[in-house]
Amino acid sequence: MILKTAGILSRRFLFTTAATKMSSTAKKLDGRIAIVTASTDGIGFAIAKRLASDGAQVVVSSRKQKNVDAAVAKLKLEGLSVTGMVCHVGLKEDREKLIEKTVSLFGGLDILISNAAVNPVFGPVLSCPEDAWDKIFDINVKTAFLLAKSAVPHMEKRGRGSIIFISSIAGFQPFSALGAYSVSKTALLGLTKVLAQEVGHSGIRVNCIAPGVIQTKFSSMLVDNDDVRNKVLEGIPLQRIGQPEDMGGLASFLCSDDASFITGENIIAAGGAQSRL
Ligand SMILES: NC(=O)c1ccc[n+]([C@@H]2O[C@H](COP(=O)([O-])OP(=O)(O)OC[C@H]3O[C@@H](n4cnc5c(N)ncnc54)[C@H](O)[C@@H]3O)[C@@H](O)[C@H]2O)c1
């Protein structure tokens, strides 16, 4: 009798230990397949890294093969599950290849982070030349829409999915020096709302991150010069410039089951910045 009880207890102990081990190694994005556009640097790279650290299989992409190779090598050195593909988001064949190859390699698609953006001109919206306007809307808005359109059927097949558009605080509070860019980022807020309503019934969630000033090449004009940087800091209650990793954590949360009842939201991550910068 004593021996039998000891046997049951030791089996229970082994089972509990194995279960504890499994739960301590399980990650919140295990089994998810993710594409992040423009992810060899800056915010896109930080998001790709965080999604992969949280268990996702991530496809890193950008326009140049050498940048893709360098980013993939860096992430693989950290033991992360990443693959690289060249994708100029403005090119139909590149977008299609990115989605189709991801699906054929990994068996599906769960997460799309549409991060690529351009800003070829500075100044008020009325001084924006037509060709610059077209480029801004092509890359910042139209390709976000087209990528989502191609991704949704694959997510529908899996009965789940998470799409995140990267907008900007300028989409809420236009920057006077970034007239047309600000309008393009406001358009993404609307795309988020509309798409979330259209695909919610398939278990697909659509959200948008609106970063404040984050230290990347994109914001170098605002952060590299001490005087400008100090002026910017005056408008940020948290008293610091954001880091790309700040966006990685938010993106991973939004893609995870922890955010399973969140869709159609435009989330500002700007250290509390409210005013025009
Ligand atoms: N850094 C900031 O302060 C800030 C603030 C608000 C929003 N954002 C947004 O965050 C996103 C990432 O910007 P970032 O700050 O990391 O700067 P970044 O310059 O590192 O990222 C922009 C990326 O888009 C890529 N890109 C441009 N055109 C492309 C195309 N046709 N195909 C593929 N990639 C293309 C660029 O190569 C670049 O890597 C952008 O959408 C940007 O608008 C940045």
Tell me what you see in this structure.
The protein is of the alpha/beta class. It has one domain: Rossmann fold. The chain has nine helices and seven strands, in the order αβαβαβαβαβαβαααβ. A seven-stranded parallel beta sheet has the order 3-2-1-4-5-6-7, with helices on both faces. β5, α6 and β6 form a beta-alpha-beta unit. The longest helix has 29 residues. The chain is globular and about 50 Å long. The N and C termini lie far apart (76 Å). The structure holds nicotinamide-adenine-dinucleotide.
Entry summary:
With 277 residues, the chain is an alpha/beta fold.
Name its key features.
NAD(P)-bd_dom_sf; Rossmann fold; Sc_DH/Rdtase_CS; 7-stranded parallel beta sheet; 50% helix; Carbonyl reductase; binds nicotinamide-adenine-dinucleotide; 277 residues; alpha/beta
SSE topology:
Layout: H1 2-25, E1 33-36, H2 42-53, E2 57-62, H3 65-77, E3 82-86, H4 92-106, E4 111-114, H5 130-158, E5 161-166, H6 179-199, E6 204-211, H7 220-223, H8 226-234, H9 244-255, E7 266-269
Parallel strand pairs: 1-2, 1-4, 2-3, 4-5, 5-6, 6-7
The structure holds nicotinamide-adenine-dinucleotide.
Nicotinamide-adenine-dinucleotide binds at residues 37-38, 41-44, 62-63, 88-90, 115-118, 139, 166, 168, 211, 213-214, 216-219.
